Amino acid sequence: KAGIQVAIDGPAGAGKSTVAREVARRLDYLYIDTGAMYRALTWLALQKDIDLNDESALSLLAEATDIRLLPALEGLKVLINGQDVTDAIRLPEVSRHVSQVAAVAGVRVPMVRLQQRLAEECGVVMDGRDICAYVLPRAEVKIFLTASIEERARRRYLEMSAKGVDITLEQLQADIAQRDKEDECRDVAPLVKAEDAQLLDTTGMDREAVVQQVLQMVHKAG
Ligand code: C5P
Questions:
Q1: 29, 55, 82, 103, 202 from 69: Cα distances, Å
Q2: Model's pTM, two decimal places?
Q3: CB 135 within 8 A of CB 118
Q4: Which residues make Cβ contacts (< 8 Å) with residue 53, sequence separation at least 6?
Q5: Which residue, judged by its Cα, is nearest atom 8 of ligand 1?
Q6: Which of 39, 69, 100, 158 could be stapled to 89 by a disulfide with Cβ–Cβ 3.0 to 4.6 Å?
Q7: Residues facing residue 142 across a β-bridge
Q8: Of the candidates 214, 206, 201, which has an alpha carbon nearest to the alpha carbon of residue 146?
């Protein structure tokens, strides 16, 4: 097996996916965005008008759904039952409901199974909320990536404005704070820094500096 496992957890908007994707690119590792899987399922549930309080309906949907992450020029292409939802899963509507869907134990089981299967392949960088503690407990590098709420909201705002999504900075900050709270307070696999994860606070750091820090951790571990 070539390469190691790099696990990155952290709150919403900390830049996990940007950093994880870039680190994977430079190491020629597989990048796995687990948030995209929960987002895709949430998109499908909304599309199908499934009651998000109905845990068994959501669990059945998760078991019966085919989710794929395909490497693309710009990051990953996300397919759910063959349909390309790469852009749709980033919309505020999905962001607002994803934590509710991801809190359902019966949803997490097939998702974690898929994530672990993908990680068998080779060197991987995987980002999410429960990767260090649950999905890849034996990862050689474990990182908790975070930044202040103001900075996370600002970064997300720039991203959204560039895409032409109509949302204010205040609304985004409120959405992010709400999502963090839901992710931290849930019963199954809550968002928390794993004991053996290294804390990386990126407030005030630019992307390249963060990427370099992570690469250093990888080189030390390898
Ligand atoms: O990483 P991202 O912000 O795209 O994740 C969206 C949501 O998916 C999170 O707010 C969380 O509710 C859920 N999630 C999770 N476990 C993961 C990754 C994401 O519960 N490993």
A1: 14, 25, 11, 21, 27
A2: 0.95
A3: no
A4: none
A5: 35
A6: 39
A7: 7
A8: 201
The answer to whether the CB of 98 is under 6 A from ligand 1 is: yes
Instruction: Decide whether any atom of ligand 1 lies within 6 Å of the 202 Cβ.
Output: no
Q: Which two tokens stand for residue 24?
A: 């994977």
Q: Does any ligand 1 atom lie closer than 6 A to the CB of residue 12?
A: yes
Contact predicate 16/8, CB 8 Å: yes
Confidence category of residue 133, pLDDT binned at 50, 70, 90? very high
Residue 151, helix vs strand vs coil: helix
Q: For residue 73, what pLDDT is reported?
A: 81
Atom index in ligand 1 nearest the CA of residue 9 equals 21
Q: Which two tokens stand for residue 85?
A: 């939802």
Query: Mean pLDDT, the chain, as a whole number?
Result: 95
Residue 29 gets which letter from DSSP? P
Single-letter residue type at 76: L
Interface pTM (ipTM) of the complex?
A: 0.99
**What is residue 30's predicted lDDT score, i.e. its pLDDT?**
94
